[in-house]
Amino acid sequence: MTLSKKVILFALLILVVPYIVNAVETKYSMEIWNRFTMEDDGSDADPDMSFSLERAYLRIEPKFTDNIKGRFNLDFFSSDKDEDANGAGVKLKYAYLDFKNILPLPKSKLSVGLVKNYFGTIYSWEYETIQKDPADKWKFASSTDYGVVLSGAVPAAKLSYNLGLYNGEGYKKAGGNVNNEFAFLGNVRIKPVDMLEIGGTYSMNSKKNPNDDAGEENPDHEAISAYAANATFKMAGATVLAQYLGKTTEMDNLDGVDDLNENVVSVLAMYNLNEAAGVNLDLVARYDMYDDDVDGDDEDGNEIQNGENLMLFGFNYHFHKGLQLQANYQIMSYEDEDLDDETELMLQLRWKFSSVMGK
Question: Rounded to 5 degrees, what are φ and ψ at 332?
Answer without folding.
Answer: -105, 120
